[in-house]
Design a protein that fits this description.
The chain is α/β, with parallel strands linked by helices. It is built from 10 helices and 8 strands. It has one domain: Metal-dependent hydrolases (TIM Barrel, Alpha-Beta Barrel), CATH 3.20.20.140. The relative contact order is 0.17.
């Protein structure tokens, strides 16, 4: 797989703006240099960022960041399956209040994670259903997480799909069968630096070509999933939105398209999906 040098990363995106559809910028690792993180992203051509809400407090904080950077940062509101035990009626009501703000562009992060099972599966399913009902009521798109749970995930999502607007399965890391099921449900697919990881993401390289052009999105999932195609490698392991060009390049290489083509496609898709 070809890689971008640091100089290429600095130069290429200026004519090919990108949108990072998922960055956990409320993470404590960004507290000390947040302004610099945004500046680096902007210099790399990352023109807009969706800040992920992954807990009730995280969603409140994500909204606050978006309100501080109008037009550049936007946010989602949701409770990650790792925190599904938080998703009681009072918390869902608070998410509903957050979702009324114009900076909130999707419901989530929500879904199922049977890889770690941090919360009992029945609680995850209940929380997922509550988020789906909230998305139906608000008309907002859904920002979904699924890991090692595709069968149950589909069983929950499928009966509601016709009542929902747009849906993205973010940070897709699964196998072909899961991908095709999500595409059959008219879901968008978010690709992260996982595709840059030769140890565990190589299976995504042939699969990404099967994602219809109008359903492809890219993201960093910062501070997680630092792309392994960065040359030279950063000193730390924290991922940032500035590294989104490496994901774009990996997708371009996998699909046989140009960097500019993937940048243009994914930016157009993100603007339409999140109504930016």
């Amino acid at each position: 797989m070809s890689t971008l040098t640091q100089n290429e990363t600095d130069q290429t995106p200026r004519s090919a703006p990108l949108i990072d559809i998922g960055a956990n910028l409320t993470h404590e690792s960004f507290a000390t240099d947040f302004a610099d993180v945004l500046s680096r992203a902007q210099l790399a051509g990352v023109n807009q960022i969706l800040v992920t809400g992954a807990s009730l407090q995280g969603s409140i904080d994500a909204l606050a960041l978006a309100q501080q950077q109008p037009g550049y940062l936007w946010a989602t509101a949701g409770i990650h399956p790792h925190h599904a035990d938080e998703a009681d009626p009072a918390a869902i009501a608070q998410l509903r209040t957050l979702a009324a703000q114009p900076e909130i562009k999707a419901i989530g992060e929500t879904g199922l994670d049977f890889f770690r099972d941090i919360c009992p599966r029945h609680q995850q399913i209940h929380a997922f259903e509550a988020h789906i009902e909230l998305a139906i009521d608000t008309g907002l798109p859904m920002f979904l997480h699924e890991r090692e749970s595709s069968q149950a995930f589909l069983e929950v999502l499928r009966p509601y799909r016709d009542q929902l607007s747009q849906v993205v399965v973010h940070c897709f890391t699964g196998e072909a069968a899961a991908l095709y099921h999500y595409l059959d449900l008219d879901c968008h697919i978010g690709i992260t630096g996982w595709i840059c990881d030769e140890r565990r993401g190589a299976h995504l390289i042939p699969l990404v070509s099967d994602i219809p052009e109008n359903r492809l999105l890219i993201e960093t999932d910062a501070p997680y999933l630092l792309p392994r195609n960065i040359k030279p490698k950063p000193k730390g392991r924290r991922n940032e939105p500035v590294h989104l060009p490496y994901v774009c390049q990996a997708v371009a290489t996998a699909t046989g398209k140009s960097y500019a083509d993937i940048a243009r496609t994914t930016t157009t898709n993100a603007r339409e999906f999140f109504r930016l």
